[in-house]
Design brief:
single chain; globular; mainly alpha; about 750 residues
Length: about 750
């Protein structure tokens, strides 16, 4: 029991190691500058109020693309002004004030339909409403502070200090391109010697950094609700690094395998081309970090043209000496792979440009193969309309906030506790759309508040000068904002200190009452959040994980359909469409990983369900990678006839995916897998028959025959089909262990997804 409890509360001591020093400095400047101006003008309270208002608005600056940040901050500013005015009016009418509180909090919670940014705009608006409701004198001090402070915050965030909380993620993704550039330059310097001591460590380093950057992106999404366009783009750039690395390895192998004296000119050109690629990758790394550095591909294009001329010369030489056939084949392969690499590089450059300008491409003209072209215009009210139903988790979140806010306000009015609005304020910051995040938030907030109250009960007795307290308060809030992503409990400790310092500067009640009120209000607000999050209109984490699994399988079904024509010899793969579907599968896999984390961390999750959920998530991702490998084997297909049983195999895979999806949707045991083992045996027997014929041809010195092309096409394809079958078996077994509760079936069929 103790071990299980320690596991549940391990997040209290876990940190992600990220301290946003830039945000802390910006907060300090945002508070100190207006306060200093207020001292000079003889009104330090107004200066402090303006600084506070600027930090309230900047709560909505959660990072992302520049245009999105600008819209979010403006929306928070306008929403806060409207909400504060409503609070100042509603405070004079008891019943109407209660209804207004519920309405504002519902709207604030419902704004999560717009993702992370919308959720924070809701938090800022709710905060402003509570501040306005405390202004019983109906003076304009708060509104003036908000008007000036909002403008100051906007200028500070967008003009003076463009804070970028996602910069560490950008830097990690940029490191992939930097390592790749170093690898390219080392390859060129060593004349493609794969055993060179300068090359090998870079290969390992690139693999490790790719894995690390993927994990960092998943970690950055934990604790957040909604999607981030920037993180999605960074995820695509990680995959682009992988794709660039593949043709590079093929180029290196070809040059090492065909080390012919007559290819010296080609090798020199290849070394120059690889070195030019290294320079382009260094420029890409600069672009990812946000610097304006458009790569110049002119030199690479000239080198590619020179290699194409070498290919033409080899064709001419073949008419005079058939012994030059191998040389022509080698040069042709090198040119083909370098052309593929150049095309991939062009797509990567376009994707890196989207990091700074998401509307760089007009609708229908963007890189559709990546699935990130600018979508057609969608009215702003569509997400609100689509989620306005009880089975939407975001609608239910708004209802929970409204009910909890009204309950907190009633408790504050009945008990008459000083600063009773802290109850509702705690609820706003603690209650999240899912229980696992709510539980972690309230636990961290309780720990941070308790420590803050204990320390400040001593500090406020030692320091009582208003100016000294103001300086300490500014330092405290700066430290709190810089530590938000490092550890929420530590950040809450400093925020609590800041709040208590503010109340000590202009005391409305004795300091001891304020300290006790802060602790009691936090306890009440956390208790309300716990009750609402755990029981009322709660969407189970199992349901959320199951929805994510269904979405993943739907994407895999579409992905496999892109392979079918090539597997059946009916034509080449549509690379643009295949890559678009693959990107959707990759994003679905990321969403499933996040849903898995929340499902595992949910206290109500049975231990027997964690293992099959983990296995299902891992092997669905492996199945997606298996489809990608199959595409790479089929890319250069000559169109030779596949085994007759291949059509049956594709049908069986499609049927298996459909059965697995229906099993998750209906929460029932999956149907037995089709007999794919027998089908694969038929394919292998058919293939072995051709292999025997090929051996006979080699004995008769028949070099180039249709059978040779057939073996090149399907030798590795058959092996990969075997891997796909084994992964489907594992997924089938895991889902069978996971789906033994029919209570979710009806709920999953609704499949109301938030926009």
């Amino acid at each position: 029991m103790l071990a299980k409890l320690r596991q549940r509360l391990a997040f209290l001591i876990h940190t992600n190691g990220t301290i946003d020093g830039g945000r802390g400095i910006r907060t300090f400047c945002g508070m100190a500058v207006p306060y200093s101006a207020g001292l000079v003008l003889g009104d330090p309270q107004l200066g402090l109020g303006i600084g506070l208002a600027s930090q309230l608005i900047l709560l909505a600056d959660v990072g992302g693309l520049y245009s999105v940040r600008l819209k979010t901050i403006l929306g928070a500013w306008i929403g806060a002004a409207i909400a504060m005015a409503m609070g100042m009016v509603a405070v004079h009418y008891g019943g109407i004030g209660l209804i207004a509180t519920g309405l504002v909090l519902f709207v604030s919670g419902y704004l999560t339909v717009y993702g992370e940014q919308g959720g924070m705009v809701g938090v800022v608006s709710s905060f402003a409403f509570l501040l306005g409701s405390q202004n019983v004198s109906a003076d304009s001090f708060e509104l003036i502070s908000l008007a000036i402070g909002g403008l100051w915050g906007l200028v500070l965030a967008i003009v003076i200090w463009p804070f970028r909380p996602n910069q560490p993620l950008r830097q990690m993704v940029a490191n992939n391109f930097t390592i790749l550039a170093n690898y390219l330059k080392a390859m060129a310097a060593s004349s493609f010697d794969q055993d060179d001591p300068m090359v090998q460590p870079l290969v390992v380093q690139l693999r490790q950094n790719l894995l690390k950057s993927r994990q960092a992106l998943v970690e950055s999404q934990r604790g957040l609700w909604g999607q981030s366009k920037l993180r999605e783009l960074l995820l695509v750039l990680i995959e682009h690094t992988e794709r660039l690395n593949k043709p590079l390895m093929l180029l290196s192998e070809i040059i090492n395998f065909h080390n012919l004296p007559q290819l010296q000119t080609v090798q020199i050109l290849m070394e120059d081309a690889i070195s030019a690629l290294g320079d382009i990758c260094l420029d890409l790394a600069q672009m990812v970090t946000g610097k304006r550095c458009i790569p110049n591909t002119n030199r690479l294009q000239l080198l590619l043209q020179a290699l194409q001329q070498q290919q033409t010369l080899q064709k001419q030489a073949l008419t005079e000496d058939f012994a030059d056939y191998n040389s022509l084949t080698t040069v042709t392969q090198l040119v083909t792979h370098l052309e593929n690499l150049t095309n991939q590089l062009s797509q990567t450059i376009q994707m890196a440009q989207l990091l700074e300008n998401p509307r760089l491409f007009h609708p229908g003209e963007g890189p559709d193969d990546e699935g990130f072209s600018t979508p057609a215009f969608t009215p702003w009210w569509e997400p609100l309309k689509n989620n306005f139903q009880l089975n939407s988790p975001l609608f239910r979140h708004g209802l929970r906030l409204a009910i909890g806010g009204m309950a907190g306000l009633l408790i504050a009015q009945i008990t008459g506790i000083p600063y009773g609005f802290w109850i509702v304020l705690t609820l706003i910051f603690v209650l999240k759309p899912d229980f696992s995040l709510t539980f972690q938030r309230l636990s961290n907030r309780l720990v941070g508040t308790l420590l803050g109250v204990l320390v400040m009960s001593i500090a406020l007795k030692l320091v009582q000068d208003p100016h000294t307290l103001s300086l300490l308060g500014i330092l405290a809030i700066a430290l709190g904002t810089s530590l938000l992503r490092f550890h929420y409990s530590v950040a809450v400790f400093f925020v609590t200190a800041f709040a208590l310092i503010l109340k000590a500067i202009v005391p409305e009640v004795p300091t001891e009452y304020a300290l006790a009120s802060r602790l009691v209000c936090t306890l009440i607000g956390s208790a309300i959040a716990l009750v609402l999050g755990f029981s009322f209109l709660r969407q189970s984490e199992r349901f959320r994980f199951t929805q994510a699994g269904v979405k993943m399988i739907v994407n895999l079904e579409a992905y496999f359909q892109q392979l079918t024509p090539a597997l059946l010899g009916q034509g080449a793969i549509n690379q643009r469409e295949a890559e678009r579907v693959r990107n959707q599968s990759r994003l679905a896999a990321t969403g499933m990983q996040i849903a898995l984390d929340r499902f595992i961390n949910d206290p109500s999750t049975p231990l027997t369900k964690k293992e099959p959920a983990l296995t299902t998530t891992n092997y669905l991702a492996r199945l997606s990678r298996g489809f990608r490998v199959l595409i790479s084997h089929l890319e250069n297909s000559s169109g030779s006839n596949p085994p007759p049983a291949m059509e049956l195999f594709t049908t069986q895979v499609e049927q298996s995916l459909t059965d697995l999806r229906l099993s998750l949707e209906n929460q029932s045991s999956p149907a037995a897998l089709p007999p794919m083992a027998e089908t694969l045996k038929q394919i292998r027997d058919y293939h072995q028959h051709y292999q025997a014929q090929r051996i006979a041809e080699i004995g008769q010195q028949q070099g180039n025959t249709p059978i040779r092309r057939y073996l090149n096409d399907f030798n590795l394809v058959v092996e990969e089909c075997q891997q796909i079958y084994q992964r489907l078996e594992t997924i089938h077994s895991a889902i069978a262990r996971f789906t033994d509760s029919p209570d979710l079936a009806q709920e999953i069929k609704l499949k109301s997804q938030p926009s």
